[in-house]
């Protein structure tokens, strides 16, 4: 049986948020930020199961307070993350059920992804082996040296700001992570690991609303987006 599995990462400390509560558990319009992503993937017929990766010691808390009762059958496991996002994803990969063909990896602090692009991502990954959501930059991007002096202006028409979800064939993403572990390579997203291993990654245009909650300002933006969606 060929399965589509989702790994949701939620093991970060959220230090830039400046709160005692980890950002993935902060309330966004009366609901924990992490709950939005979980509910979105629970509601996707194409997704067979979900692996939730959380901070060590938070497993029981998430089972009891974050995962909705109606979706617990789809959340196959809640596992402890590692010292970095990369280690956390790898722990999630190790927990995937046998028969997983495509792996969706999503940041648990991207609560505004509605799933509109998931079919295009899955199709691109099935054909190309790897695919990521991304959006074109709105601003001009400068490359600087170690003294913060501009080296050159990068061609904006060739640049994309990477988001999640990212989707990979199981063998490709597992091999990329294992190779990175052997060579001590650290990346900030999974597509980068796949690129280094020599695999091309297809870009699917996403939405500017699919923001990652990192700072207090992001909470204000997320609240505004949710309010606008309510009145569509």
Question: Could you give a short description of this structure?
Answer:
This protein has a single domain, classed as Spore Coat Polysaccharide Biosynthesis Protein SpsA, Chain A (Alpha-Beta Complex).
Short descriptors:
232 residues; alpha/beta; Spore Coat Polysaccharide Biosynthesis Protein SpsA, Chain A; two-stranded antiparallel ribbon; 7 helices; 32% helix
In the CATH scheme, what's the topology name?
Answer: Spore Coat Polysaccharide Biosynthesis Protein SpsA, Chain A
State the helicity in percent bands.
25-40%
Give the structural class: alpha/beta
SSE ordering:
EEEHEHEHEHEEEEHHEH
What does the main sheet amount to? 7 strands, mixed
Describe the global form. globular
Number of domains: 1
By CATH, the superfamily comes out as Spore Coat Polysaccharide Biosynthesis Protein SpsA, Chain A
Going by CATH, the architecture would be: Alpha-Beta Complex
Name the poorly predicted regions.
none
Q: How many extended strands?
A: 11
CATH class assignment: Alpha Beta
Question: Rg, please?
Answer: 18 Å
Residue-averaged pLDDT: 95
Strand content: 25-35%
* C-alpha end-to-end distance: 40 Å
Number of helical regions: 7
- The neighbouring-strand order within the major sheet is 5-4-1-6-10-7-11
Organism: Desulfofarcimen acetoxidans (strain ATCC 49208 / DSM 771 / KCTC 5769 / VKM B-1644 / 5575)
Site (Positions MEP for the nucleophilic attack): 156, 212
GO molecular function, one term: 2-C-methyl-D-erythritol 4-phosphate cytidylyltransferase activity
GO biological process, one term: isopentenyl diphosphate biosynthetic process, methylerythritol 4-phosphate pathway
């Amino acid at each position: 049986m060929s399965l589509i599995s989702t790994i949701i990462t939620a093991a970060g400390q959220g230090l830039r948020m400046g709160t005692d509560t980890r950002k993935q558990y902060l309330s966004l319009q009366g609901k924990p930020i992490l709950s939005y992503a979980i509910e979105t993937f629970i509601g996707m017929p194409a997704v067979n199961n979900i692996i939730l990766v959380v901070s060590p010691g938070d497993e029981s808390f998430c089972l009891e307070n974050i995962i909705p009762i109606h979706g617990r059958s789809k959340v196959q496991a809640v596992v402890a993350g590692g010292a970095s996002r990369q280690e956390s994803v790898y722990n999630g990969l190790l927990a995937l059920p046998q028969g997983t063909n495509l792996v969706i990896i999503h940041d648990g602090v991207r609560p505004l992804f509605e799933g509109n692009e998931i079919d295009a991502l899955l199709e691109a990954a099935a054909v190309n082996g790897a695919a990521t959501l991304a959006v074109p930059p709105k601003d001009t991007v400068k490359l600087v040296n170690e003294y913060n002096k501009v080296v050159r202006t990068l061609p904006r028409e060739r640049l994309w700001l990477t988001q999640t979800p990212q989707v990979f064939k199981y063998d490709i993403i597992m091999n990329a992570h294992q190779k990175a572990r052997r060579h001590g390579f650290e990346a900030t997203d999974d597509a980068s690991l796949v690129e280094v291993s020599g695999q091309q990654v297809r870009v699917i245009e996403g939405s500017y609303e699919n923001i990652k909650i990192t700072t207090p300002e992001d909470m204000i933006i997320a609240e505004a987006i949710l309010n606008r969606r309510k009145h569509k």
